[in-house]
Amino acid sequence: MLQIEGLNVYYGGIHALKDLSLEVEQGEIVSLIGANGAGKSTTLNTISGLVRAKNGKILFKGQSITSMPVHDVVKAGIVQVPEGRRVFANLTVRDNLELGAYLRRDKAAVAADMRKVFRLFPRLEERQSQLAGTLSGGEQQMLAIGRGLMAAPQLLLLDEPSMGLAPMLVREIFRIIQEINKMGATILLVEQNAHMALAIAHRAYVLETGRVVLSGPAKQVLEMDEVKKAYLGG
Amino acid sequence: MNEFLQQVINGLSLGSVYALIALGYTMVYGIVRLINFAHGDIYMIGAFIGFFTTRVLHLSFIPALILSMACASLLGVIIERLAYKPLRHAPRIAILITAIGVSFLIEYSMIWAFSPQPRAYPDLLANYQLQLAGLIITAQQLFILGIAIILMLGLHFLVQKTKSGKAMRAVSYDMDAAALMGINVNSVISFTFAIGSALAGAAGLLVGVYYNRIDPLMGIMPGLKAFVAAVLGGIGIIPGAMVGGIIMGVAESLVSGFLSSTYRDAVAFAILIIILLVKPTGLLGKRSVEKV
Ligand SMILES: Nc1ncnc2c1ncn2[C@@H]1O[C@H](COP(=O)(O)OP(=O)(O)OP(=O)(O)O)[C@@H](O)[C@H]1O
Ligand SMILES: [Mg+2]
Known about the structure:
The complex is a heterodimer. Chain A is 39% helix and 27% strand. Chain A is α/β, with parallel strands linked by helices. Chain A has a six-stranded mixed sheet with strand order 6-7-8-3-9-10, sandwiched between helices. Chain B is built from eleven helices and four strands. Chain B starts with a helix and ends in a 14-residue tail after the last helix. Bound molecules: adenosine-5'-triphosphate and magnesium ion.
Protein backbone atom coordinates (compact mmCIF):
# COMPACT_ATOMS: atom_id res chain seq x y z
CA MET A 1 0.00 0.00 0.00
CA LEU A 2 2.79 2.42 0.96
CA GLN A 3 6.27 2.13 -0.46
CA ILE A 4 9.15 4.38 0.45
CA GLU A 5 12.36 4.05 -1.52
CA GLY A 6 15.70 5.68 -0.90
CA LEU A 7 14.37 8.70 0.93
CA ASN A 8 16.83 11.44 1.92
CA VAL A 9 15.67 14.36 4.03
CA TYR A 10 17.72 17.30 5.24
CA TYR A 11 17.02 20.09 7.71
CA GLY A 12 19.57 22.62 6.52
CA GLY A 13 22.83 20.80 7.16
CA ILE A 14 21.29 17.99 9.24
CA HIS A 15 20.86 14.77 7.30
CA ALA A 16 17.73 13.50 9.07
CA LEU A 17 16.75 10.52 6.88
CA LYS A 18 19.42 8.54 5.08
CA ASP A 19 18.35 6.35 2.17
CA LEU A 20 15.30 5.26 4.07
CA SER A 21 13.16 2.54 2.53
CA LEU A 22 10.14 0.91 4.06
CA GLU A 23 6.89 -0.68 3.07
CA VAL A 24 3.44 -1.03 4.58
CA GLU A 25 1.00 -3.62 3.23
CA GLN A 26 -2.75 -3.18 3.20
CA GLY A 27 -4.30 -4.23 6.51
CA GLU A 28 -1.07 -4.24 8.50
CA ILE A 29 0.03 -2.52 11.66
CA VAL A 30 3.67 -1.58 11.12
CA SER A 31 5.66 -0.13 13.99
CA LEU A 32 8.54 2.27 13.60
CA ILE A 33 10.68 2.43 16.69
CA GLY A 34 13.90 4.24 17.55
CA ALA A 35 15.56 6.57 20.02
CA ASN A 36 14.84 10.29 20.32
CA GLY A 37 15.95 12.11 17.22
CA ALA A 38 16.18 8.94 15.13
CA GLY A 39 13.93 10.45 12.46
CA LYS A 40 10.58 8.81 13.19
CA SER A 41 8.50 11.99 13.10
CA THR A 42 10.47 13.19 10.10
CA THR A 43 9.46 10.01 8.29
CA LEU A 44 5.77 10.57 8.98
CA ASN A 45 5.99 14.27 8.13
CA THR A 46 7.66 13.49 4.84
CA ILE A 47 4.91 11.02 3.97
CA SER A 48 2.32 13.68 4.83
CA GLY A 49 4.14 16.30 2.77
CA LEU A 50 4.92 18.65 5.65
CA VAL A 51 8.62 18.02 5.06
CA ARG A 52 10.07 17.66 1.56
CA ALA A 53 12.56 14.93 0.63
CA LYS A 54 15.69 15.88 -1.26
CA ASN A 55 15.37 12.67 -3.21
CA GLY A 56 13.70 9.30 -3.04
CA LYS A 57 10.20 8.10 -3.79
CA ILE A 58 7.00 7.68 -1.82
CA LEU A 59 4.29 5.63 -3.51
CA PHE A 60 0.78 5.16 -2.17
CA LYS A 61 -1.31 2.50 -3.88
CA GLY A 62 1.14 2.68 -6.76
CA GLN A 63 0.85 6.47 -7.19
CA SER A 64 3.67 8.87 -6.41
CA ILE A 65 2.80 11.23 -3.57
CA THR A 66 6.37 12.48 -3.16
CA SER A 67 5.64 16.11 -3.99
CA MET A 68 1.93 16.28 -3.28
CA PRO A 69 0.59 19.19 -1.17
CA VAL A 70 -0.32 18.15 2.36
CA HIS A 71 -4.07 18.45 1.85
CA ASP A 72 -3.96 16.26 -1.25
CA VAL A 73 -2.13 13.55 0.66
CA VAL A 74 -5.02 13.60 3.11
CA LYS A 75 -7.46 13.45 0.22
CA ALA A 76 -5.60 10.42 -1.11
CA GLY A 77 -6.37 8.65 2.18
CA ILE A 78 -3.28 9.12 4.37
CA VAL A 79 -4.07 10.77 7.68
CA GLN A 80 -1.56 11.67 10.35
CA VAL A 81 -2.20 12.04 14.08
CA PRO A 82 0.80 14.20 14.88
CA GLU A 83 3.16 14.03 17.83
CA GLY A 84 2.06 16.12 20.81
CA ARG A 85 -1.68 15.98 20.01
CA ARG A 86 -1.87 19.35 18.28
CA VAL A 87 -5.61 19.68 18.90
CA PHE A 88 -7.15 23.06 18.10
CA ALA A 89 -7.37 24.39 21.63
CA ASN A 90 -9.49 27.36 20.52
CA LEU A 91 -12.24 25.13 19.12
CA THR A 92 -14.68 22.79 20.80
CA VAL A 93 -14.24 19.04 20.88
CA ARG A 94 -17.02 18.65 18.33
CA ASP A 95 -15.51 21.30 16.03
CA ASN A 96 -12.18 19.49 16.20
CA LEU A 97 -13.84 16.24 15.19
CA GLU A 98 -15.74 17.97 12.39
CA LEU A 99 -12.50 19.45 11.08
CA GLY A 100 -11.12 15.93 10.97
CA ALA A 101 -13.83 15.23 8.40
CA TYR A 102 -13.09 18.48 6.56
CA LEU A 103 -12.77 16.91 3.11
CA ARG A 104 -15.75 14.58 3.37
CA ARG A 105 -19.06 15.39 1.76
CA ASP A 106 -20.96 12.25 2.79
CA LYS A 107 -22.90 13.69 5.74
CA ALA A 108 -24.49 10.41 6.80
CA ALA A 109 -21.21 8.53 6.85
CA VAL A 110 -19.55 11.36 8.78
CA ALA A 111 -22.30 11.22 11.40
CA ALA A 112 -21.86 7.46 11.64
CA ASP A 113 -18.11 7.91 12.13
CA MET A 114 -18.76 10.50 14.81
CA ARG A 115 -20.84 7.91 16.68
CA LYS A 116 -18.04 5.40 16.19
CA VAL A 117 -15.51 7.80 17.69
CA PHE A 118 -17.83 8.48 20.64
CA ARG A 119 -18.18 4.73 21.15
CA LEU A 120 -14.39 4.32 21.23
CA PHE A 121 -13.95 7.39 23.45
CA PRO A 122 -17.13 7.98 25.50
CA ARG A 123 -15.28 10.76 27.35
CA LEU A 124 -15.28 12.85 24.18
CA GLU A 125 -19.02 12.62 23.83
CA GLU A 126 -19.55 13.98 27.33
CA ARG A 127 -17.26 16.89 26.53
CA GLN A 128 -18.20 17.68 22.99
CA SER A 129 -19.03 21.32 23.58
CA GLN A 130 -15.99 21.97 25.77
CA LEU A 131 -12.98 23.84 24.33
CA ALA A 132 -10.30 21.34 23.36
CA GLY A 133 -7.68 23.37 25.20
CA THR A 134 -9.42 22.64 28.49
CA LEU A 135 -9.23 18.85 28.11
CA SER A 136 -6.70 16.83 30.11
CA GLY A 137 -3.65 15.54 28.27
CA GLY A 138 -5.08 12.06 27.93
CA GLU A 139 -8.40 13.39 26.68
CA GLN A 140 -6.57 15.52 24.15
CA GLN A 141 -4.79 12.42 22.90
CA MET A 142 -8.15 10.68 22.50
CA LEU A 143 -9.41 13.72 20.62
CA ALA A 144 -6.36 13.73 18.36
CA ILE A 145 -6.92 10.08 17.48
CA GLY A 146 -10.66 10.56 17.10
CA ARG A 147 -10.09 13.54 14.85
CA GLY A 148 -7.81 11.42 12.69
CA LEU A 149 -10.46 8.72 12.43
CA MET A 150 -13.05 11.26 11.30
CA ALA A 151 -11.11 11.56 8.06
CA ALA A 152 -11.91 7.88 7.34
CA PRO A 153 -8.22 7.11 6.69
CA GLN A 154 -7.06 4.23 4.56
CA LEU A 155 -3.60 4.61 6.07
CA LEU A 156 -3.35 6.09 9.55
CA LEU A 157 0.01 7.48 10.68
CA LEU A 158 0.19 7.62 14.47
CA ASP A 159 3.08 9.53 16.07
CA GLU A 160 3.60 8.46 19.68
CA PRO A 161 -0.05 8.09 20.64
CA SER A 162 0.89 6.82 24.11
CA MET A 163 3.16 9.70 25.02
CA GLY A 164 2.54 11.09 28.48
CA LEU A 165 -0.37 8.78 29.31
CA ALA A 166 -0.92 6.78 32.49
CA PRO A 167 -0.21 3.00 32.08
CA MET A 168 -3.92 2.14 32.21
CA LEU A 169 -4.66 4.52 29.41
CA VAL A 170 -1.65 3.35 27.40
CA ARG A 171 -3.07 -0.17 27.30
CA GLU A 172 -6.45 1.24 26.37
CA ILE A 173 -4.98 3.27 23.51
CA PHE A 174 -3.13 0.26 22.12
CA ARG A 175 -6.29 -1.81 22.33
CA ILE A 176 -8.12 0.90 20.40
CA ILE A 177 -5.36 1.01 17.78
CA GLN A 178 -5.89 -2.69 17.19
CA GLU A 179 -9.61 -2.14 16.97
CA ILE A 180 -9.15 0.64 14.42
CA ASN A 181 -6.97 -1.73 12.41
CA LYS A 182 -9.63 -4.44 12.54
CA MET A 183 -12.19 -1.94 11.31
CA GLY A 184 -10.13 -1.65 8.14
CA ALA A 185 -7.46 1.04 8.49
CA THR A 186 -3.84 0.22 7.79
CA ILE A 187 -1.58 1.67 10.47
CA LEU A 188 1.98 2.98 10.59
CA LEU A 189 2.74 3.44 14.27
CA VAL A 190 5.64 5.44 15.67
CA GLU A 191 6.35 4.67 19.31
CA GLN A 192 8.81 5.08 22.17
CA ASN A 193 6.98 2.33 23.98
CA ALA A 194 8.67 -0.45 22.01
CA HIS A 195 7.17 -3.30 24.09
CA MET A 196 3.60 -2.39 23.34
CA ALA A 197 4.29 -1.27 19.80
CA LEU A 198 5.95 -4.57 18.93
CA ALA A 199 3.27 -6.56 20.74
CA ILE A 200 0.45 -5.27 18.55
CA ALA A 201 2.32 -4.85 15.25
CA HIS A 202 2.62 -7.27 12.38
CA ARG A 203 5.96 -5.96 11.28
CA ALA A 204 8.46 -3.43 12.57
CA TYR A 205 11.33 -1.20 11.54
CA VAL A 206 14.04 0.06 13.84
CA LEU A 207 15.45 3.47 13.02
CA GLU A 208 18.82 4.77 14.18
CA THR A 209 20.04 8.26 13.26
CA GLY A 210 17.94 8.37 10.13
CA ARG A 211 18.71 4.87 8.89
CA VAL A 212 16.73 1.62 9.04
CA VAL A 213 18.98 -0.74 10.99
CA LEU A 214 16.61 -3.64 11.58
CA SER A 215 13.32 -4.81 10.21
CA GLY A 216 11.12 -7.87 10.11
CA PRO A 217 8.06 -9.47 11.65
CA ALA A 218 7.35 -7.79 14.98
CA LYS A 219 7.73 -11.02 16.96
CA GLN A 220 11.22 -11.55 15.55
CA VAL A 221 12.25 -7.95 16.14
CA LEU A 222 11.03 -8.31 19.72
CA GLU A 223 13.44 -11.23 20.21
CA MET A 224 16.51 -9.58 18.71
CA ASP A 225 19.26 -8.95 21.22
CA GLU A 226 20.12 -5.51 19.86
CA VAL A 227 16.52 -4.44 20.24
CA LYS A 228 16.19 -5.91 23.72
CA LYS A 229 19.28 -4.03 24.83
CA ALA A 230 18.55 -0.71 23.23
CA TYR A 231 14.77 -0.37 23.46
CA LEU A 232 13.33 -2.92 25.82
CA GLY A 233 15.54 -2.25 28.84
CA GLY A 234 17.62 -5.42 28.79
CA MET B 1 -23.19 66.56 29.09
CA ASN B 2 -25.09 66.96 25.85
CA GLU B 3 -21.94 68.08 24.12
CA PHE B 4 -20.23 64.98 25.44
CA LEU B 5 -22.99 62.66 24.20
CA GLN B 6 -23.00 64.42 20.87
CA GLN B 7 -19.29 63.75 20.46
CA VAL B 8 -19.79 60.13 21.45
CA ILE B 9 -22.44 59.78 18.76
CA ASN B 10 -20.17 61.35 16.18
CA GLY B 11 -17.38 59.09 17.34
CA LEU B 12 -19.43 55.93 17.06
CA SER B 13 -19.85 56.05 13.31
CA LEU B 14 -16.23 57.04 12.80
CA GLY B 15 -15.22 54.27 15.19
CA SER B 16 -17.26 51.67 13.37
CA VAL B 17 -15.34 52.56 10.21
CA TYR B 18 -12.04 52.14 12.07
CA ALA B 19 -13.34 48.83 13.36
CA LEU B 20 -14.07 47.61 9.83
CA ILE B 21 -10.52 48.43 8.75
CA ALA B 22 -8.99 47.08 11.96
CA LEU B 23 -10.70 43.73 11.37
CA GLY B 24 -8.66 43.20 8.22
CA TYR B 25 -5.39 43.90 10.02
CA THR B 26 -6.27 41.59 12.84
CA MET B 27 -7.58 38.69 10.71
CA VAL B 28 -4.53 38.72 8.47
CA TYR B 29 -2.23 38.97 11.47
CA GLY B 30 -4.06 36.09 13.14
CA ILE B 31 -3.41 33.84 10.17
CA VAL B 32 0.02 34.77 8.83
CA ARG B 33 1.48 37.00 11.58
CA LEU B 34 1.88 39.82 9.13
CA ILE B 35 0.96 43.48 9.47
CA ASN B 36 -0.38 44.21 6.02
CA PHE B 37 0.69 47.80 5.61
CA ALA B 38 -1.08 47.98 2.27
CA HIS B 39 -4.40 47.49 4.05
CA GLY B 40 -5.11 51.25 4.31
CA ASP B 41 -4.62 51.48 0.55
CA ILE B 42 -7.12 48.73 -0.08
CA TYR B 43 -9.55 50.91 1.86
CA MET B 44 -8.64 53.83 -0.40
CA ILE B 45 -9.24 51.68 -3.50
CA GLY B 46 -12.63 50.75 -2.06
CA ALA B 47 -13.47 54.46 -1.82
CA PHE B 48 -12.37 55.03 -5.43
CA ILE B 49 -14.37 52.08 -6.73
CA GLY B 50 -17.37 53.54 -4.91
CA PHE B 51 -16.67 56.87 -6.55
CA PHE B 52 -16.52 55.46 -10.07
CA THR B 53 -19.45 53.14 -9.74
CA THR B 54 -21.67 55.96 -8.49
CA ARG B 55 -20.29 58.97 -10.43
CA VAL B 56 -19.55 57.25 -13.71
CA LEU B 57 -21.82 54.22 -13.74
CA HIS B 58 -24.53 55.98 -11.70
CA LEU B 59 -25.19 53.00 -9.51
CA SER B 60 -26.99 53.43 -6.22
CA PHE B 61 -25.59 52.82 -2.77
CA ILE B 62 -26.02 49.08 -2.31
CA PRO B 63 -24.65 47.96 -5.71
CA ALA B 64 -21.76 50.39 -5.22
CA LEU B 65 -21.09 48.90 -1.80
CA ILE B 66 -21.07 45.38 -3.19
CA LEU B 67 -18.73 46.35 -6.03
CA SER B 68 -16.36 48.19 -3.70
CA MET B 69 -16.18 45.16 -1.46
CA ALA B 70 -15.68 42.76 -4.36
CA CYS B 71 -12.90 44.80 -5.99
CA ALA B 72 -11.15 45.44 -2.69
CA SER B 73 -11.31 41.77 -1.90
CA LEU B 74 -9.85 40.85 -5.28
CA LEU B 75 -7.05 43.35 -4.78
CA GLY B 76 -6.28 41.92 -1.35
CA VAL B 77 -6.03 38.41 -2.76
CA ILE B 78 -3.80 39.54 -5.63
CA ILE B 79 -1.46 41.37 -3.23
CA GLU B 80 -1.23 38.28 -1.05
CA ARG B 81 -0.52 35.95 -3.96
CA LEU B 82 2.03 38.17 -5.70
CA ALA B 83 3.79 39.90 -2.83
CA TYR B 84 3.41 37.93 0.39
CA LYS B 85 3.01 34.29 -0.55
CA PRO B 86 6.48 33.95 -2.12
CA LEU B 87 7.91 35.30 1.14
CA ARG B 88 5.98 33.08 3.52
CA HIS B 89 9.12 31.46 4.88
CA ALA B 90 11.34 34.53 4.52
CA PRO B 91 12.50 36.57 7.52
CA ARG B 92 9.81 38.83 8.95
CA ILE B 93 11.65 42.00 8.07
CA ALA B 94 11.59 41.10 4.36
CA ILE B 95 7.81 40.76 4.44
CA LEU B 96 7.41 43.96 6.40
CA ILE B 97 9.47 45.93 3.90
CA THR B 98 7.53 44.33 1.06
CA ALA B 99 4.26 45.38 2.67
CA ILE B 100 5.44 48.98 2.88
CA GLY B 101 6.60 48.76 -0.73
CA VAL B 102 3.22 47.48 -1.88
CA SER B 103 1.56 50.34 -0.04
CA PHE B 104 3.69 52.94 -1.84
CA LEU B 105 3.15 51.18 -5.15
CA ILE B 106 -0.64 51.42 -4.82
CA GLU B 107 -0.62 55.00 -3.55
CA TYR B 108 1.65 56.37 -6.25
CA SER B 109 0.07 54.35 -9.05
CA MET B 110 -3.21 55.95 -8.08
CA ILE B 111 -1.64 59.43 -7.99
CA TRP B 112 -0.10 58.77 -11.40
CA ALA B 113 -3.35 57.48 -12.85
CA PHE B 114 -5.85 59.83 -11.25
CA SER B 115 -3.81 62.81 -10.01
CA PRO B 116 -3.42 63.64 -6.32
CA GLN B 117 -6.40 66.03 -6.41
CA PRO B 118 -9.21 65.20 -4.00
CA ARG B 119 -12.52 64.31 -5.59
CA ALA B 120 -15.97 65.08 -4.30
CA TYR B 121 -18.19 62.12 -3.62
CA PRO B 122 -21.75 62.15 -4.87
CA ASP B 123 -24.52 62.29 -2.26
CA LEU B 124 -25.65 58.72 -2.03
CA LEU B 125 -27.69 58.86 1.12
CA ALA B 126 -30.51 61.10 2.12
CA ASN B 127 -29.19 64.04 4.05
CA TYR B 128 -31.66 64.55 6.84
CA GLN B 129 -31.13 64.79 10.57
CA LEU B 130 -32.83 63.37 13.58
CA GLN B 131 -33.17 65.44 16.72
CA LEU B 132 -33.37 63.46 19.88
CA ALA B 133 -33.30 65.14 23.28
CA GLY B 134 -31.11 67.88 21.94
CA LEU B 135 -28.76 65.51 20.18
CA ILE B 136 -28.30 65.54 16.43
CA ILE B 137 -27.96 62.26 14.61
CA THR B 138 -27.61 62.35 10.85
CA ALA B 139 -29.04 59.69 8.60
CA GLN B 140 -25.55 59.09 7.28
CA GLN B 141 -24.21 58.34 10.73
CA LEU B 142 -27.01 55.88 11.34
CA PHE B 143 -26.44 54.29 7.98
CA ILE B 144 -22.71 53.91 8.48
CA LEU B 145 -23.17 52.45 11.92
CA GLY B 146 -25.92 50.13 10.67
CA ILE B 147 -23.92 48.84 7.69
CA ALA B 148 -20.85 48.35 9.89
CA ILE B 149 -22.85 46.40 12.45
CA ILE B 150 -24.43 44.20 9.78
CA LEU B 151 -21.02 43.45 8.29
CA MET B 152 -19.53 42.66 11.68
CA LEU B 153 -22.41 40.36 12.60
CA GLY B 154 -21.95 38.64 9.25
CA LEU B 155 -18.27 38.22 9.95
CA HIS B 156 -18.97 36.86 13.41
CA PHE B 157 -21.33 34.28 11.96
CA LEU B 158 -18.85 33.35 9.25
CA VAL B 159 -15.95 32.85 11.64
CA GLN B 160 -17.85 31.14 14.45
CA LYS B 161 -20.42 29.02 12.69
CA THR B 162 -19.36 28.08 9.18
CA LYS B 163 -16.98 25.38 8.08
CA SER B 164 -14.74 27.95 6.35
CA GLY B 165 -14.65 29.99 9.54
CA LYS B 166 -13.66 26.99 11.60
CA ALA B 167 -10.96 26.12 9.07
CA MET B 168 -9.75 29.71 9.40
CA ARG B 169 -9.52 29.44 13.15
CA ALA B 170 -7.75 26.11 12.88
CA VAL B 171 -5.17 27.54 10.46
CA SER B 172 -4.67 30.51 12.74
CA TYR B 173 -4.05 28.24 15.70
CA ASP B 174 -1.77 25.66 14.06
CA MET B 175 -1.10 25.80 10.35
CA ASP B 176 0.54 22.38 10.01
CA ALA B 177 -2.07 20.59 12.08
CA ALA B 178 -4.76 22.27 9.96
CA ALA B 179 -3.07 21.05 6.79
CA LEU B 180 -3.13 17.54 8.24
CA MET B 181 -6.95 17.82 8.37
CA GLY B 182 -6.91 18.23 4.60
CA ILE B 183 -7.42 21.99 4.82
CA ASN B 184 -5.83 23.83 1.91
CA VAL B 185 -3.93 26.39 3.92
CA ASN B 186 -3.20 28.62 0.93
CA SER B 187 -6.89 28.90 0.10
CA VAL B 188 -7.72 29.76 3.69
CA ILE B 189 -5.08 32.50 3.68
CA SER B 190 -6.48 33.91 0.42
CA PHE B 191 -9.97 33.72 1.84
CA THR B 192 -8.85 35.65 4.91
CA PHE B 193 -7.29 38.39 2.79
CA ALA B 194 -10.47 38.47 0.69
CA ILE B 195 -12.76 38.96 3.68
CA GLY B 196 -10.52 41.46 5.47
CA SER B 197 -10.08 43.48 2.28
CA ALA B 198 -13.80 43.44 1.51
CA LEU B 199 -14.46 45.02 4.92
CA ALA B 200 -11.84 47.69 4.20
CA GLY B 201 -13.47 48.32 0.81
CA ALA B 202 -16.81 48.84 2.51
CA ALA B 203 -15.18 51.22 4.98
CA GLY B 204 -13.71 53.19 2.07
CA LEU B 205 -17.09 53.71 0.49
CA LEU B 206 -18.70 54.65 3.81
CA VAL B 207 -16.04 57.24 4.53
CA GLY B 208 -16.34 58.63 1.03
CA VAL B 209 -20.03 59.13 1.65
CA TYR B 210 -19.45 60.61 5.11
CA TYR B 211 -16.63 63.04 4.41
CA ASN B 212 -17.55 63.65 0.80
CA ARG B 213 -14.00 63.67 -0.45
CA ILE B 214 -11.43 61.07 -1.42
CA ASP B 215 -7.84 61.15 -2.64
CA PRO B 216 -5.09 58.58 -3.29
CA LEU B 217 -3.38 59.15 0.06
CA MET B 218 -6.58 59.03 2.12
CA GLY B 219 -5.75 55.51 3.34
CA ILE B 220 -2.61 56.42 5.25
CA MET B 221 -4.08 58.01 8.38
CA PRO B 222 -7.14 55.79 8.83
CA GLY B 223 -4.90 52.81 8.08
CA LEU B 224 -2.55 53.77 10.88
CA LYS B 225 -5.39 54.51 13.26
CA ALA B 226 -7.13 51.23 12.51
CA PHE B 227 -3.85 49.45 13.05
CA VAL B 228 -3.60 51.10 16.46
CA ALA B 229 -7.22 50.10 17.10
CA ALA B 230 -6.33 46.48 16.31
CA VAL B 231 -3.37 46.62 18.70
CA LEU B 232 -5.56 48.31 21.32
CA GLY B 233 -8.10 45.50 21.18
CA GLY B 234 -5.39 42.84 20.96
CA ILE B 235 -3.93 42.09 17.56
CA GLY B 236 -5.27 38.84 16.12
CA ILE B 237 -8.48 38.98 18.15
CA ILE B 238 -11.61 39.74 16.13
CA PRO B 239 -13.82 41.22 18.88
CA GLY B 240 -10.77 43.20 19.98
CA ALA B 241 -10.63 44.96 16.62
CA MET B 242 -14.30 45.90 16.94
CA VAL B 243 -13.88 47.28 20.47
CA GLY B 244 -10.58 48.98 19.63
CA GLY B 245 -12.07 50.67 16.57
CA ILE B 246 -15.02 52.07 18.50
CA ILE B 247 -12.83 53.34 21.33
CA MET B 248 -10.49 54.95 18.83
CA GLY B 249 -13.32 56.72 17.03
CA VAL B 250 -14.96 57.98 20.20
CA ALA B 251 -11.66 59.13 21.72
CA GLU B 252 -10.79 61.00 18.56
CA SER B 253 -14.16 62.64 18.43
CA LEU B 254 -14.02 63.69 22.09
CA VAL B 255 -10.56 65.16 21.70
CA SER B 256 -11.45 67.15 18.64
CA GLY B 257 -14.66 68.33 20.31
CA PHE B 258 -13.26 69.31 23.71
CA LEU B 259 -9.61 70.10 23.06
CA SER B 260 -8.89 70.96 19.49
CA SER B 261 -9.24 69.16 16.23
CA THR B 262 -5.54 69.69 15.60
CA TYR B 263 -4.91 66.99 18.21
CA ARG B 264 -7.25 64.45 16.67
CA ASP B 265 -4.53 62.55 14.87
CA ALA B 266 -2.32 62.57 17.94
CA VAL B 267 -4.94 60.56 19.86
CA ALA B 268 -4.11 57.37 18.01
CA PHE B 269 -0.45 57.59 18.83
CA ALA B 270 -1.08 58.51 22.44
CA ILE B 271 -3.28 55.42 22.71
CA LEU B 272 -0.63 53.27 21.02
CA ILE B 273 2.07 54.42 23.43
CA ILE B 274 -0.15 53.90 26.47
CA ILE B 275 -1.29 50.43 25.42
CA LEU B 276 2.26 49.33 24.62
CA LEU B 277 3.37 50.49 28.05
CA VAL B 278 0.43 49.21 30.07
CA LYS B 279 -0.91 46.13 28.29
CA PRO B 280 0.98 45.23 25.13
CA THR B 281 -1.32 42.26 24.44
CA GLY B 282 -4.26 44.67 24.08
CA LEU B 283 -7.53 45.00 25.97
CA LEU B 284 -8.87 41.55 25.12
CA GLY B 285 -5.47 39.89 24.83
CA LYS B 286 -4.61 37.03 27.11
CA ARG B 287 -1.49 35.00 27.08
CA SER B 288 -2.95 32.16 25.10
CA VAL B 289 -5.68 33.55 22.95
CA GLU B 290 -7.76 32.58 20.04
CA LYS B 291 -6.08 34.31 17.21
CA VAL B 292 -8.73 34.75 14.59
N1 LIG C 1 12.33 21.44 11.97
C1 LIG C 1 13.55 20.94 12.20
N2 LIG C 1 14.66 21.70 11.99
C2 LIG C 1 15.90 21.19 12.20
N3 LIG C 1 16.14 19.97 12.63
C3 LIG C 1 15.10 19.16 12.86
C4 LIG C 1 13.74 19.60 12.66
N4 LIG C 1 12.91 18.60 12.97
C5 LIG C 1 13.71 17.58 13.34
N5 LIG C 1 15.01 17.90 13.28
C6 LIG C 1 16.14 17.03 13.58
O1 LIG C 1 16.02 15.85 12.80
C7 LIG C 1 16.33 14.71 13.57
C8 LIG C 1 15.15 13.76 13.56
O2 LIG C 1 14.07 14.35 14.26
P1 LIG C 1 12.67 13.64 14.46
O3 LIG C 1 11.76 14.63 15.06
O4 LIG C 1 12.28 13.01 13.19
O5 LIG C 1 13.04 12.53 15.52
P2 LIG C 1 12.10 11.48 16.26
O6 LIG C 1 12.62 10.16 15.93
O7 LIG C 1 10.69 11.74 15.96
O8 LIG C 1 12.42 11.81 17.78
P3 LIG C 1 11.44 11.78 19.07
O9 LIG C 1 11.31 10.39 19.50
O10 LIG C 1 12.20 12.59 20.07
O11 LIG C 1 10.15 12.41 18.68
C9 LIG C 1 16.71 15.22 14.94
O12 LIG C 1 18.12 15.28 15.01
C10 LIG C 1 16.10 16.58 15.01
O13 LIG C 1 16.88 17.42 15.82
MG1 LIG D 1 9.09 12.37 17.05
